[in-house]
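dude i think i finally got it to work??
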Amino acid sequence: MHMYRQIAHEPDKINRFAEIERVEPRYKLYSKYYQSEQFPDFAKTVDIELQADMSGQDGFVEPGIVRRGFYVEQIEHWLSVFDREQFLFLEQESLRGNLLKETLQRIARFLEVPPEWKQSTFKAKHVRSYEGMYIDSKTKTKLFRLYKKKNQGLNELTGLVLNWPCLVVSD
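look at this
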């Protein structure tokens, strides 16, 4: 969402989104977000996607801001294509700070490649400031309930122990 908001100031990218939508009408990024004067706030963005989904507009492919969080659905799809042994599931937090080196070693072992890298190459990329941005409680509750439902069984599927609030929220 934040990335799309930043792109609102890049006419070349917006024109590219318009062209993509013209060629492939399922991609609604341009018409939903860049034709109006002001980029919609997060709650409105969530509502746009949920309304499209509830009305059966399954072709509403991009942006899948909400659907990107349906991890079980996505993982099950890929498990129908590839063997489970071909996957290594990691928590995002393991790619930061003190856990990074150990995680990279684990990835190298999984891929059966020598762990050859230089510590100096570990620099944060795509760092964004989210200062002043928030999710209102109504939208947060709506998303937590949706993600709890859509991601039921995620821990078992990945073998991870995820204590995400949206997985443990009570009804």
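The mean pLDDT is 82.
im so relieved honestly
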